[in-house]
Amino acid sequence: MRKLNVLLLFVVTTILFNFCHEKQMVSAGTEVGVNVGQKAPTFTLPNVDGSEFTLRTFGKDKNVLLVFSATWCHACRNEIPLIKNYYDEFKDDGLEIVVVDVGEHRSKVKSFVKKRELNYNVILDEMAEVTKIFQVTGIPLNIVLNKSGIIIYRDNAPPDKDFIKNLFVN
Hints:
Blueprint: H1 2-20, E1 44-46, E2 52-54, H2 55-58, E3 63-69, H3 74-90, E4 95-102, H4 106-116, E5 121-125, H5 129-133, E6 141-145, E7 151-155, H6 161-166
Parallel strand pairs: 3-4, 4-5
Antiparallel strand pairs: 1-2, 3-6, 6-7
C-alpha cells in the first residue's frame, strides 16, 4: 500500500509540475512572457491615487512605455524629463506611459509624483510582485509594448525618440 501511495504521489506531482510549467500561449501562437517578441503578462496594481490599474484593459490598442523605477534611484530620476517629453509629444498619437514604482509606500510615491508634476500613470508594486514577474534585475527598466501588447523593446536605457516616433508610422 505504501508503494502505491508513493507512486500515486509521484504521478500527481509530475502532472502538476508539467501543467504549471507549460508555456502560456495567446492567440496567433504568441507566447506570454517578458522578453522581446512575447506578449506581456497582464497585471493589476494600485495607482498612486488608490484606484486600480490593469495593464490588459489600459494598454488595449495603444503603445505603452512601461518603466520600472523608484524614487530613490538617481538614474530613474534622470529619465523623468525625457519620459515627460515623450508623453507630452506622443500622448495624442496613442502613447501611454506607466511607471511601476518598485517597493515603496504610497505616501512617499504620491508626494514624489506631486513634487515632480508627473502627468502620466504611476502605479505601486509595493511587494515587488510584478517586478518579479517581469524579471527586473535593475532599475530603471524600460519596456515598450506595441498595440497588441507584444514587447518590442526592453532595456535599462529608455528608447530613443526615433524609436518612439516609428511606433506611429502606418
